[in-house]
Amino acid sequence: MALSTGARSNGGSATVAQRLQKELMDIMTRPTSGVTAFPDDENMTKWTATIEGPDGTPYAGLTFKLSMEFAANYPYTAPTVLFRTPIYHPNVDFSGRICLDILKDKWSAIYNINSVLLSLQSLLGEPNNSSPLNGQAAELWEKDMDEFKRYVLTRHKTPEELDAEI
């Protein structure tokens, strides 16, 4: 099955599709524990990913669904990544937008889907509280971890619960 880029055909789109196809093959042949990513249906530029909360963090045992969208000039531009699972985190707002340097000004073409997902998984256990999108979460992370965990569990939905809402 050939996957389309979902964009108008031009040389750049073909290159993006080739890069994403290679990344998909890498993910399938060398899976990384705790992260998954696959294109949505026939559109190679829109992906659904999951990350598992790391052990020893308030997110341990939880799975988070994300959307990834790739521009026509990927890998020279960072993908747009959003949490689809509601998450209570200092660096994620209530719309799922993420404050992470490698998705903004520190992006480099050497990064790939797997490195982005692993960075997000790491961010779950090591938030950047000096640059929060959710100030309340940053404050609770520092002052009251039990209350923080309560908020995490209150907001979280399983992938099955999310799918049922569609």
TrEMBL record:
A GO molecular function held by the record: ATP binding
Taxonomically, the superkingdom here is Eukaryota
Cite the entry's keywords alphabetically. Answer: ATP-binding, Nucleotide-binding, Transferase, Ubl conjugation pathway
Q: By its UniProt entry, which CDD domains does this protein fall under?
A: UBCc_UBE2C (cd23791)
Question: Domain UBC core spans what residues?
Answer: 15-161
The protein's matches in SMART domains, at most eight in alphabetical order, are given as: UBCc
Q: Where is the active site?
A: 99 (glycyl thioester intermediate)
Q: Which family does it belong to?
A: Belongs to the ubiquitin-conjugating enzyme family.
Query: What is the name of the protein in this document?
Result: Ubiquitin-conjugating enzyme E2 2
Q: Which organism is it from?
A: Zopfia rhizophila CBS 207.26
